[in-house]
Amino acid sequence: MKKHIYCRHSHELEIPFFDVDAMHIVWHGHYVKYLEVARCAFLSSIGYDYNEMARQGYGWPIVQMNLKYIRPARFGQRVRVEMEIVEIESCLRIDYTIRDAATGGKLTRAATTQAAVATATGEMQFQTPASWLAAVRQHPTFQAA
Predict the structure, then answer these.
(1) CATH number 2.40.10.10 given to 7-17+26-137
(2) Cα-based torsion angle of the residue sequence 27, 33, 38, 39 in order, rounded to the nearest 10 degrees
(3) How many CB atoms are closer than 10 A to CB 107?
(4) So where does this one cross the membrane (predicted)?
(5) pTM beyond 0.85, yes or no
(6) Are 50 and 40 in contact (CB under 8 A)?
């Protein structure tokens, strides 16, 4: 069955020197940071960043993450983190592809899942808050299921 994509977003960045090892390739742990930078840009674009989540009474911890390294990113390289938001109702699930910004060559595939947790009680929410759904539906590429 083909997955539904609620919306798409992308973010470009340049690989800084402090993210690479002696061979000038990105240390594997820094890819997680690139996902977070892109995710924060997406959340800001819909007006529902982590500060707004907190104001609404929720934390959104990562509950699952998968990465597949295909080719290394290198110092000074511009990369584009492409995001497909594939679940919004029970959690926030995003599929990512990190590509070379100039050639489009695939470097990494990843996925993250975040769940809403009520900050007052610490209880995981099995349905995402209405405030989240209203915000994500405002993204210019939003497509209802």
Answers:
(1) no
(2) 140
(3) 21
(4) none
(5) yes
(6) yes
Q: How far apart are CA 11 and CA 41, in angstroms?
A: 7
* First-residue to last-residue Cα distance in the chain: 14
Spatial distance between the Cα atoms of 85 and 94, rounded to a whole number of angstroms: 5
Longest dimension (CA), the chain: 47
Contact 38, 96 (CB under 8 A): yes
CB count in 10 Å sphere of residue 79? 24
State how far the Cα of 5 lies from the Cα of 45, in Å rounded to an integer: 17
pLDDT tens for each residue of the chain, 145 residues long? 778 999 999 999 999 999 999 988 999 999 999 999 999 999 999 999 999 999 999 999 999 999 999 999 999 999 999 999 999 999 999 999 999 999 999 999 999 999 999 999 999 998 999 999 999 999 999 998 8
